[in-house]
Write a structure and sequence with these properties.
Blueprint: H1 14-21, H2 25-38, H3 63-70, E1 82-83, E2 90-96, H4 101-119, E3 124-130, H5 136-149, H6 154-161, H7 173-182, H8 188-195, H9 198-213, E4 221-224, E5 227-230, H10 235-249, H11 253-256
Parallel strand pairs: 2-3
Antiparallel strand pairs: 1-3, 2-4, 4-5
Helix pairs in contact: 2-3, 5-6, 5-8, 5-9
Length: about 260
């Protein structure tokens, strides 16, 4: 997420900085590749909306780089922050912040269409990565989303937090509890405990370090089977990337078995 905004304070700690330096040569190349396109992604609200005029940002050609980035797909069957088959031929990884206006635009305008057209029929899996860069409220919202996910309400929380006008209400404690109730979280006491717990903090750190390690600097940023796409691009840009990724996946082992999830 942004070239013109500050990263969260936790992500700039010396320990995190050291970890981001300790990367393999292959991933270092991937970081440069994604960094080249990340600056084009949408960031703060005071910047012009370029989503309608931008085309999908693609990484420089290089199958090795895409292959390294594609390995970031976790494909964990029990991932609470993912939707779609674990063995889907195409995985879209999304690095987003709940305070990012253009992340909300993608969540409202594009993501539902991707789910309807590609996830439901087994082609696409979407894996969310919490990547808060707009300060403390971003981080608490990320932890709240993770906590909602522990009770299988991530998708509903995601929709509520990205509803039109939602971010303007902020993400203080009372507001997060309101969003959790709106999402239908059944055990609010557990939700509060999970949100403030070490597991939520660890999950958030894992997602942040992954993003920084590969060069993500702005939100939203995406990988489609390793191909970077920066910003809230139009549906057609994602459709083209998914079609290309599916074609490249071919009839491999991930595409062969289309049995029940």
């Amino acid at each position: 997420m942004p070239s013109s905004t500050s990263r969260s304070s936790s992500s700039s700690s010396p320990a995190s900085a050291r970890k981001r330096l300790l990367i393999s040569a292959g991933v270092a190349v991937a970081a440069v590749t994604l960094g080249i396109v990340s600056w084009q992604a949408t960031a703060p609200e005071d910047r012009p909306d370029r989503s309608s005029s931008s085309s999908a940002a693609a990484a420089p050609k290089g199958s090795d780089v895409h292959a390294e980035l594609a390995k970031l797909a976790r494909r964990e069957a029990g991932d609470k922050l993912a939707v779609g088959r674990a063995d889907a031929p195409v995985v879209l990884i999304e690095y987003s912040d709940f305070k990012c206006g253009y992340c909300g635009k993608f969540a409202r305008d594009t993501e539902p269409e991707l789910v309807k057209k590609y996830v439901d029929e087994g082609t696409l899996r979407i894996e969310w990565r919490n990547f808060p860069i707009f300060g403390a409220d971003s981080e608490t919202a990320a932890k709240a989303a993770w906590a909602a996910g522990q009770q299988d309400r991530f998708a509903r929380f995601h929709a509520a937090a990205y509803a039109d006008g939602a971010k303007e209400k902020g993400f203080g404690r009372a507001r997060l509890l309101e969003l959790a109730r709106e999402a239908g979280v059944p055990d609010m006491e557990r939700f509060e405990k999970d949100m403030a717990g070490e597991a939520a903090a660890a999950a958030l750190q894992k997602d942040q370090e992954e993003g920084y390690r590969i060069g993500v600097t702005s939100t939203p940023s995406f990988l489609v089977n390793g191909q970077p796409i920066a910003g809230a691009q139009p549906l057609d840009a994602f459709a083209a990337a998914i079609a290309d990724a599916k074609a490249r996946a071919g009839a491999g082992p991930q595409a062969d078995d289309r049995s029940a999830r």
